[in-house]
Amino acid sequence: MIYKQFVNSLIENATKEYPKRSFHLTELLAFGSEGGAFLAIAKNWGKNPQNVVIKIQKNMKANEKDFLNKLIIYQDQYESGNNKQYLPSNLIRVFECFEWKENNCVLMEVGGQSLFDYITMKTDLQMEERVKICFEICYPLYFLHQQKLIHRDIKPENFITVGEIFKLIDFGLIRSSFSQKKTQQVGNVISQAPEILENSSSYTEKVDIWSLGCVFYEVLSGQALLDAPKHNYNFRLNL
Fold first, then answer.
1. Pair 14, 100: CB distance under 8 Å
2. Number of compact structural domains in the chain
3. Which residues form a coiled coil (predicted)?
4. Are residues 140 and 50 in the same domain?
5. 153 labelled catalytic
């Protein structure tokens, strides 16, 4: 799908509460095999107007749709107010999912820099700040693993700044840890766990912990733990 064709499109998506709601797609932020993410201006909805992100994808797997619906309910109930009984998920805020022109749309809050860009640009970061970031990016994984879910694509590019914290994004590869057979060779090659590199299909949440360790190394040292050309499995360890 050529996502650039959607720039400047107007998505009219009325609800009972906001019968004149629409979204003007102003910029293609990123795209890949799982869809395209657009910056959009929301009109006649909430704070009017406001910037949002809309991810558009032709096909959405049932497990991703189920996860997003549950996440929306959780965030609406426990993260939109002052409920201190529940820890924040530190996942990007998802407002709702809807369909447009036979595409699935995910409406989300706007984020800023990715963790990858942040540590690449801020080469003078003090170790105290680097350690703080490492603690911070543990929260979304803790939340997912408490729900017996595996993210499977933990990498610096999938954490983005929202306000003063980093939140986890991109839920297209999420799977239940109860699933007996899981897809082989998923996620970012540089931070893939040995089980995935060995084509195992019975891995657990521990593959996320391995990937998180790779991210820790990159945050703390300023360089990737492993070097490998894209789609090449001959790695060089940076120690």
1. no
2. 2
3. none
4. no
5. yes
Q: The tokens of 196 are what?
A: 């995935």
> Which of these, 174, 176, 177, 169, lies nearest to 186 by C-alpha position?
174
**Structural domain of 32:** 3-108
146-164 tens-digit pLDDT: 999 999 899 999 999 999 9
pLDDT digits (tens, 9 = 90+) for 41-66: 999 998 766 999 999 998 888 888 99
pLDDT of residue 237: 47
How far is 170 from 114, CA to CA, in rounded Å? Answer: 12
Q: What pLDDT band is residue 199 in, cutting at 50, 70 and 90?
A: confident
Q: What is the largest CA-CA distance in the chain?
A: 58
Residue 48 and residue 133: Cα distance in Å, rounded? 33
Distance (Å, whole) CA 185 – CA 87: 32
Same domain for 131 and 184, yes or no, is yes
Identified catalytic residue from 66, 153, 208, 227: 153
Quickly tell me which residue has 């998802």 as its tokens. Answer: 94
What's the predicted TM-score (pTM) here? 0.87
Q: What is the distance between the alpha carbons of residues 185 and 170, in angstroms, rounded to a whole number?
A: 17
Q: CA 198, 204, 207 angle in degrees (round to 5)?
A: 60
**What distance in Å separates the CA atoms of residue 157 and residue 154, rounded to the nearest whole number?**
8
